[in-house]
């Protein structure tokens, strides 16, 4: 059996799924985002969580704005990430509204630390995890910066990867530090049967 260069294969898949997302017509993306939002809001883990750790979506990511708004409206604590300038790590900050955000690293909206309280407790809650693609076991390929790979090592709550069905496949190459999410959510299905190692 040939030896697979995991890093090279991930680069190829990252480029493939980035192209798929960038070529998606806006009307189709909006429709898929609406269906994805409904899937997330119907999760028992979402309904019961007191704290939602949510990424603020970028241009080609699954839109999380409606989920964030719903969580805030329903009295959940909402924490969103701010990427470290040097360390390659990220911290989450609680927001009271999306007006607590400003453009940060990589042009993504991030919490303004002066206006927000930093989260200290990562032992519970639901964390929405971004990815360019996921496989059916819950493994992901992100944008290649490693922020979520490091964060998920110490997160004690439930993790939900959200992804368009077109950006999923049966299996992905895995590195030793890769961890699967607990739930994979697409606009077509919710998969609660990942491999846990």
What labels would you give this structure?
197 residues; alpha/beta; Rossmann fold; eight-stranded mixed β-sheet; three-stranded mixed β-sheet; 27% helix
Summarize this entry quickly.
Helix content is 27%, strand content 23%. The protein has five helices and 13 strands. The model has no long low-confidence stretch (mean pLDDT 92).
Total strands: the figure is 13
Adjacency order of strands in the biggest sheet: 6-3-2-1-7-10-12-13
State the separation between the terminal residues, measured CA to CA. 23 Å
Helix percentage: 25-40%
Overall radius of gyration? 16 Å
Examine the secondary-structure arrangement and name the CATH architecture: 3-Layer(aba) Sandwich
Structural class: alpha/beta
Elements, N to C (H/E): HHHEHEEEEEEEEHEEEE
**Fourth-level CATH superfamily:** NagB/RpiA/CoA transferase-like
Question: Low-confidence parts, pLDDT < 50 over ≥5 residues?
Answer: none
Task: State the CATH class.
Answer: Alpha Beta
- The dominant shape is globular
**CATH fold node name:** Rossmann fold
Number of helices: 5
What's the domain count?
1
Measured by DSSP, the beta-strand proportion falls in 15-25%
* Biggest sheet record: 8 strands, mixed
Mean pLDDT: 92
Task: Describe the protein in words.
- By secondary structure, this protein is of the alpha/beta class.
- It has one domain: Rossmann fold.
- Helices cover 27% and strands 23% of the residues.
- The protein has five helices and 13 strands.
- Helix 4 links the parallel strand 1 and strand 2.
- The model has no long low-confidence stretch (mean pLDDT 92).
């Amino acid at each position: 059996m040939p030896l697979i260069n995991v890093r090279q294969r991930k680069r190829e898949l990252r480029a493939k799924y980035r192209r798929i997302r960038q070529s998606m017509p806006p009307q189709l993306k909006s429709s898929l985002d609406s269906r994805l939002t409904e899937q997330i809001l119907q999760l028992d883990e979402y309904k019961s969580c007191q704290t939602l750790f949510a990424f603020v979506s970028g241009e080609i990511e699954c839109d999380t704005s409606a989920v964030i708004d719903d969580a805030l409206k329903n009295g959940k604590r909402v924490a969103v990430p701010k990427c470290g300038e040097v360390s390659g790590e990220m911290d989450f900050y609680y927001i009271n509204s999306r007006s607590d955000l400003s453009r940060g690293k990589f042009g993504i909206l991030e919490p303004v630390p002066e206006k927000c309280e930093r989260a200290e407790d990562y032992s519970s809650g639901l964390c929405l995890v971004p990815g360019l693609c996921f496989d059916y076991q819950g493994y992901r390929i992100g944008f290649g910066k490693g922020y979520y790979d490091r964060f998920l090592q110490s997160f004690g709550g439930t993790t939900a990867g959200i992804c368009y069905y077109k950006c999923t496949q049966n299996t992905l190459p895995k590195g030793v530090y890769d961890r699967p999410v607990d739930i994979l959510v697409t606009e077509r299905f919710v998969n609660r049967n990942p491999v846990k190692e």
